[in-house]
Design brief:
Helix content of chain B: under 10%
Number of strands of chain B: 11
Largest sheet of chain A: 7 strands, mixed
Shape of chain B: globular
Order of helices and strands of chain B: EEEEEEEEEEE
Radius of gyration of chain A: 13 Å
Strand content of chain A: over 45%
Number of helices of chain B: 0
Structural class of chain A: mainly beta
Largest sheet of chain B: 6 strands, mixed
Largest interface: A-B, 22 and 20 residues
Oligomer: heterodimer
Chain lengths: 113, 111
């Protein structure tokens, strides 16, 4: 099994719909992150959580919300999806030192039509 | 100026060539540095950390130049399988969240 699992892998949704992307990890890491990736723009941080009771906005949090249900689970919601939220979404984890970098999930390819 | 900048490429090199990428960063207080590899439509994977004295892992050598605020990745004897996008990551230690990803450099190794 993968260390970081994202579901779904692919999703097409309509404008205005609510959608949740889920992430679970078996690394035992405290820190979890949600990024989106668009061609030519690299990875941009949406939200991050350093432990279960800690939630922080990243550089592009507008239109998104998150929930850290447990140490191992961190979900991302789009309350009312819009077409410019079409992107590749990655969940990642790290230990508290970040000395070994991040472990990423396989990504969710989201298309909003 | 972007906090972390990379030449997007693409770099097109023949098999067996040596190729080098640089990545510049703007925050002089940055503490940790990494190179990740990302295959098309796949997740980034950690390639190597970058240590102050430079470090090597097989055909890959990473170096840090604090004075000029850049890190580099050298790939020797390029293989077709090295074709990917290489992301540099810079992390500071001053308040807030300080891990920044570069947009990546694309490498194509051709037979």
């Amino acid at each position: 099994d993968a260390d970081v699992t994202q579901t779904p892998r692919n999703r097409i949704t309509k404008t205005g719909k609510r959608i949740m992307l889920e992430c679970s990890q078996t690394k035992g890491h405290d820190r979890m992150y949600w990024y989106r990736q668009d061609p030519g723009l690299g990875l941009r941080l949406i939200y991050y959580s350093f432990d279960v009771k800690d939630i922080n906005k990243g550089e592009i949090s507008d239109g998104y919300s998150v929930s850290r249900q447990a140490q191992a689970k961190f979900s991302l919601s789009l309350e009312s999806a819009i077409p410019n939220q079409t992107a590749l979404y990655f969940c990642a984890t790290s230990d508290s030192t970040e000395a070994r970098g991040y472990t990423f999930g396989s990504g969710t390819r989201l298309t909003v039509v | 100026r972007k906090e972390v900048e990379q030449d997007p490429g693409p770099f097109n090199v023949p098999e067996g060539a040596t190729v080098a990428f640089n990545c510049t960063y703007s925050n002089s207080a940055s503490q940790s540095f990494f190179w990740y590899r990302q295959d098309c439509r796949k997740e980034p994977k950690l390639l190597m950390s970058v240590y102050s004295s430079g470090n090597e892992d097989g055909r890959f050598t990473a170096q840090l130049n604090r004075a000029s605020q850049y890190i580099s990745l050298l790939i020797r004897d390029s293989k077709l399988s090295d074709s990917a996008t290489y992301l540099c990551v810079v992390r500071g230690n001053t308040g807030g969240f300080k891990t920044i990803f570069g947009a990546g450099t694309r490498l194509f190794v051709k037979a």
